[in-house]
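Hi all, posting the design record for the shared folder.

TITLE: backbone redesign
STEP: 1 of 1
STRUCTURE INPUT:
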């Protein structure tokens, strides 16, 4: 097995659980119409699983879908493009959609996903992210539900990776 570096904890399990519960509580106060939760793979899988269980505790009964998106940079120009690696299988016409992602950084991924779902006729598309890096936005887009505003560092754990490592960590941290 390759050598792993230590991870300094930024948000521990208990802090994450508290925020997820509070986000679900806020969400449950909104009157959604035929809510469809769309988790953006891969990074959101752990947050989405916890968030959905918290939604259930707050009396919500959303349907769930997954989309796998990949952003990549082309040439030397820092212009991001987003590709659909796996699309959702349900129609979204007339429905309220909640996108769930791990982290909002440039905003390209979620702007792409939101535009796509609105173009397919969604009634509304709200955004929820575990983390937000406030000063990194390239596209004008804000999340409706945010776990933590995080420092401008590369974070791992709770679904998030660097080179396919650290996704399994139950906390969020920075590789030392
Ligand atoms: P955006 O399109 O720039 O907002 O990209 C957000 C995506 O980039 C997230 O969904 C993550 O998959 C990835 N990402 C951005 N920052 C980090 C980080 O600090 N750690 C791990 N993944 C990150
Ligand atoms: Mg992602």
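Okay, here is what came back for every position:
SEQUENCE:
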């Amino acid at each position: 097995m390759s050598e792993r570096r230590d991870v300094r904890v930024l948000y521990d399990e208990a802090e994450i659980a508290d925020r997820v519960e509070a986000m679900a509580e806020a969400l449950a106060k909104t009157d959604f119409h035929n809510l469809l939760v769309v988790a953006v793979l891969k990074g959101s899988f752990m947050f989405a699983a916890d968030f959905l269980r918290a939604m259930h505790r707050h009396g919500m009964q959303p349907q769930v879908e997954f989309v796998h998106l990949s952003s990549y940079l082309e040439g030397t120009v820092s212009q991001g493009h987003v590709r659909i690696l796996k699309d959702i299988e349900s129609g979204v016409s007339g429905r309220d959609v909640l996108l769930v992602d791990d982290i909002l950084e440039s905003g390209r991924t979620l702007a792409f996903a939101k535009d796509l779902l609105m173009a397919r006729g969604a009634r509304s598309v709200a955004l929820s992210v575990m983390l937000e890096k406030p000063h990194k936005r390239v596209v004008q887009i804000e999340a409706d539900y945010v776990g933590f505003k995080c420092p401008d560092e590369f974070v791992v754990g709770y679904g998030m990776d660097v080179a396919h490592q650290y996704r399994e960590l139950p906390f969020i941290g920075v590789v030392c």
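COMMENT: The longest strand covers residues 63-73.
Let me know if anyone wants the other runs.
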